[in-house]
Amino acid sequence: MPVQTLYIVQQFEKMGKRLIAGRQMTFKSAGEASARADRDASRTVGVVAIQQTVDTDTGEVLEEPVVLARHGELPAEFDPN
């Protein structure tokens, strides 16, 4: 089973009162993803950087995502509690 660790930055936007997913980007390292989320914090309603391990054959997520950085308004699943 080939495994890959992904470093993803997900931006969020407001559509009316709803929070919707915007642009998603993939990076080569946790540091790059965190730095991009930090830069995007002032330009988006919300942004999160996560680390996720997946099975590349099936696309199955193998571990709970690790939040590397979070800024602004985010969906409940990114709450730190």
> Which parts are unreliable, with pLDDT below 50 for 5 consecutive residues or more?
none
Mean pLDDT: 92
Assign an overall shape.
globular
Percent helix among the residues?
A: 10-25%
Helix vs. strand class: mainly beta
Number of strands: 4
Radius of gyration in whole Å, from Cα?
Answer: 13 Å
* Strand arrangement, major sheet: 2-1-3-4
- How many separate domains? 1
The largest β sheet comes out as: 4 strands, antiparallel
What percentage of the residues does DSSP assign to strands (E)? over 45%
Distance between the termini: 33 Å
Contiguous helical run count:
1
Structure description:
This protein is mostly beta strands and 81 residues long. The chain is 14% helix and 49% strand. It has one domain. It has 1 helix and 4 strands, in the order ββαββ. A 4-stranded antiparallel β-sheet has the order 2-1-3-4, covered by helices on one side. It has one helix at 30-40, and strands at 3-15, 18-27, 46-55, 66-72. Strand 1 (3-15) and strand 2 (18-27) form a beta hairpin. The longest helix is centred in the middle third of the chain and has 11 residues, at 30-40. The model has no long low-confidence stretch (mean pLDDT 92).
